[in-house]
Each structure stands twice: as structure tokens, then as C-alpha cells.
């Protein structure tokens, strides 16, 4: 073959190969997208997602609404946080696995919601500002969190998928598609001896005995002790009846804080409501 013809054929072959080579250089292969595996090991527990129906029931039970601060502990792929954000909540997830945090952020962007995901240890994180706390953790982890949860502001709602929180009885449990959703309302710390002052009445000594949200006690009226009737504690809201004494049955309804103070009103038969204040010794 003539040298010039051989040169032209080589050049033509190169021109056919060059566009695909340039194309492959201009379009790098996409990186693999991280996808968690159900049952994969984590720091303290394996990852298992919460079904959507259970997520929605948990948020319904906790009455999540616009503006609520919702924190999901061990937030995994971000499902609960994203669902709360769709309701207008200021939602935050705390997750130890950095890959899951990155996945959650991507899922939130794809869902078109504003949500915050933090990489961290739930046992070292501060979530005391939350109005609602959600969980899907192993029972022993829930139990470790119990003191922290009980120290949160009275009225904080806590919702858990499947598992309880130590010996703290839930305020409500629903079954959803074979799974359980539990709700707790953080109670005010009201145990102890109180002095209640009512306009027009001598000071009244009340002894309150508390076991989580369960309440009982008695009152000292004119030197005689009477067991409290119909005691109730839900978050910061407290109510009990004192029966006996010249005033007859007195119904106390008020709001308690963790600082040793209760404010509210007293109702007696045939009288207008009167304010009362109680302080703990």
C-alpha cells in the first residue's frame, strides 16, 4: 500500500475513535448513591425504617402542628423528620451515621421541605428545646434516655415506635398494621409537701405523692387528714379535690412548673372560682 494512502486510512480511523473517547472523558461515571440496608449495624442499634402509617400515627398522637419543635432521636433516613416538616414543624434529626445524615439531607431536598439533620450522639446532644421527641430505638436505649426525657419541660410530647421507655407507662398506645405507637406527656415534678393559699381561707397543707404521671396524696384540713379525690396530672396541668372541712369539697385546678409552684383556681359549691397559689416546702 502506498505510504500516503496508509497515512490517510490511519487518520480516518483515529477520527472515528476520537469522539467516543472525548465523550467518555467529558461525562464521568456517576458516583454510587448510598442506600442503607435494613438491619445494618449502627453505633447502638441496627437500622430499621418506620412504616409511613406508623409515622403519621405517631405525629397525630403527639398533635404535631405548625411551629412545633420536633426532634427525632436516631433519625436514620429522615422519614419522621421529613413527615413532621411537611406539617410545618421545625424538625430536626440527630443521627450518628454520617452516611444516613447525608441521605436524610438529600431526601429532604427531594421532598421540598426545610429540615435540619445533625450528625451526633443522641446521649451527648442537647434537645431540651423540643416540643415533641420521637424515637424508634432499642428498649435499653429508651431506658437510658428516661432521666433526660423526664427532665424536659412539662407537657413535652414523646412518641415511640414499638418500644416502651423503662417503667414509664404510656399515656396512650395505638396499634397500626401490627406495630405499636406509644405516647407520653412529660409530667411536672409535683411530689412533696405543698402549702396552698386561697383567698379567704387559712393556708392548706397538701402532700402529693407522684409516680410518673400517676398522682395521689392527702390534705390536712382543720387538723384532720383527708385523702385527695380524683387526682390527675397531665403535663403541667394538675387537678385534685379536697373533701372535708367547713368549705365542703374544694376542687383545685392549676398549672405546675418544676420550680415548686402551682397557680390556678379553686371551685366550691355555690361560690365563684377563686385564685390559689401553692408552693413546695
Automatic annotation (TrEMBL):
Boundaries of every Methyltransferase domain copy: 70-138
Keyword Signal included in the entry's annotation: yes
Tagged with keyword Oxidoreductase: no
GO molecular function: protein-lysine N-methyltransferase activity
Matches recorded under Pfam families: Methyltransf_25
BP GO annotations: methylation
Swiss-Prot/TrEMBL keywords: Methyltransferase, S-adenosyl-L-methionine, Signal, Transferase
Record-linked InterPro entries: FAM173A/B, Methyltransf_25, SAM-dependent_MTases_sf
SUPFAM superfamilies noted in UniProt: S-adenosyl-L-methionine-dependent methyltransferases (SSF53335)
Domain of life: Bacteria
Signal sequence, renumbered to the chain: 1-26
Descriptive protein name: Methyltransferase domain-containing protein
Amino acid at each position: 500500500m502506498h505510504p500516503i494512502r496508509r497515512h490517510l486510512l490511519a487518520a480516518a480511523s483515529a477520527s472515528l475513535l476520537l469522539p467516543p473517547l472525548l465523550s467518555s472523558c467529558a461525562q464521568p461515571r456517576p458516583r454510587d448513591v448510598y442506600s442503607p440496608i435494613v438491619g445494618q449495624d449502627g453505633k447502638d442499634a441496627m437500622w430499621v425504617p418506620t412504616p409511613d402509617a406508623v409515622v403519621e400515627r405517631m405525629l397525630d398522637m403527639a398533635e404535631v402542628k405548625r411551629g412545633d419543635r420536633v426532634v427525632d432521636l436516631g433519625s436514620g433516613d429522615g422519614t419522621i423528620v421529613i413527615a413532621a416538616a411537611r406539617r410545618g414543624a421545625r424538625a430536626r434529626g440527630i443521627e450518628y451515621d454520617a452516611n444516613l445524615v447525608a441521605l436524610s439531607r438529600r431526601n429532604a431536598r427531594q421532598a421540598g421541605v426545610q429540615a435540619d439533620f445533625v450528625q451526633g450522639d443522641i446521649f451527648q446532644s442537647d434537645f431540651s428545646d423540643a416540643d415533641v421527641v420521637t424515637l424508634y430505638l432499642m428498649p435499653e436505649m429508651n431506658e437510658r434516655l428516661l432521666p433526660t426525657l423526664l427532665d424536659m419541660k412539662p407537657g413535652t410530647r414523646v412518641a415511640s415506635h414499638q418500644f416502651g421507655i423503662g417503667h414509664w407507662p404510656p399515656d396512650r398506645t395505638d396499634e397500626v398494621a401490627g406495630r405499636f405507637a406509644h405516647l407520653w406527656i412529660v409530667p411536672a415534678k409535683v411530689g412533696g409537701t405543698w402549702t396552698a393559699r386561697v383567698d379567704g381561707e387559712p393556708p392548706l397543707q397538701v402532700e402529693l405523692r407522684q409516680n410518673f404521671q400517676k398522682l395521689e396524696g392527702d390534705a390536712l384540713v382543720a387538723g384532720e387528714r383527708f385523702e385527695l379525690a380524683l387526682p390527675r396530672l397531665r403535663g403541667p396541668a394538675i387537678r385534685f379535690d379536697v373533701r372535708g372541712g367547713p368549705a365542703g369539697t374544694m376542687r383545685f385546678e392549676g398549672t405546675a412548673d418544676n420550680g415548686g409552684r402551682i397557680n390556678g383556681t379553686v371551685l366550691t359549691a355555690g361560690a365563684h372560682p377563686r385564685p390559689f397559689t401553692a408552693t413546695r416546702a
